[in-house]
Amino acid sequence: MVEKLIAASVTKSEWAALAMLAGSVLLLLLFIPKAAGKLPEKIIGKDGAPMVLVPAGPFTMGSEGSGEDEKPLHRVYLDAFYMDQYEVTTKQFARFLEKSRRKPPDHWSAVRLPQLGNRPVVGVDWHNADAYCRWAERRLPSEAEWEKAARGPEVRAYPWGEDIPNASLANFDKSCILCNVYEEVLKPVGSYEKGKSPYGIYDMAGNVLEWTADWYDERYYKRSPDRNPTGPSQGLSKVVRGGSWLSRRTLLQTGLRNWESPASRSAHVGFRCAQDAQK
């Protein structure tokens, strides 16, 4: 009865106007671009690794430091991507070895699980690092992605800012001669809360150097594209970034470039993975 009274009190023209309004609202809801939706700030990778969003936008890459390969300072635009919040651990890499049947990395005999499962895996060559990231449905970060994740949009000497490195910020300046690198010098990932990058990513300076996807070229910055650079098309060495437990404090700067043979299996080199943000 109430519905009939309401219907009787509304004219045909008013019903038509209401119908048009409802249709417009429905169209708006259906056709708002998905890209306009906010990307989640954290996701979980296939291997259980937490990943942090690095938003799309420009940042300043390089430095005016002593290395000629770091010059010039230049602005680079990167699409949004996700970066592992922590370096890949021995626990995660053990699952990969079990599934892939690949040869273990160097120094693997020193790994005691589960006790040392939270240490970053080392002794991994570029090919195995790349294979792990692909297995986990991700990829190695480009050199530019790595630097933005470590530095943020503006120039920072270190992931945490301008303060000189000390024992509360990073794991560095250690020695390990005939020792168990996992027990005696490597720290559990995420140990340095004060050393996080602007995006909340841990250990971007110290602990282990990290493989990137890019080939190394000392002159690349002079001709690098200003949007989503991915390095030279070929080369002899791959870029590694970030400094390690072995590095002096001057070698922890975010702009510093290093390189290793893709076949190298060093006790101070590990990796983390990245992936594109959902379009």
Helix and strand arrangement:
Blueprint: H1 2-9, H2 12-31, E1 42-44, E2 50-54, E3 57-61, E4 74-78, E5 81-84, H3 90-100, H4 126-135, H5 143-151, H6 181-184, E6 209-215, E7 238-241, E8 258-260, E9 269-270, E10 274-276
Description:
The protein has helices spanning 2-9, 12-31, 90-100, 126-135, 143-151, 181-184, and strands spanning 42-44, 50-54, 57-61, 74-78, 81-84, 209-215, 238-241, 258-260, 269-270, 274-276. The protein folds into two domains: 1-32; 38-276, paralog of FGE (formylglycine-generating enzyme) (Alpha-Beta Complex), CATH 3.90.1580. It is built from six helices and ten strands. It has 279 residues and is an alpha+beta fold. Mean pLDDT is 88; it is low at 1-10 and 12-36. A four-stranded antiparallel beta sheet has the order 1-2-5-10. A four-stranded mixed beta sheet has the order 8-7-6-9. The chain has a two-stranded antiparallel sheet with strand order 3-4.
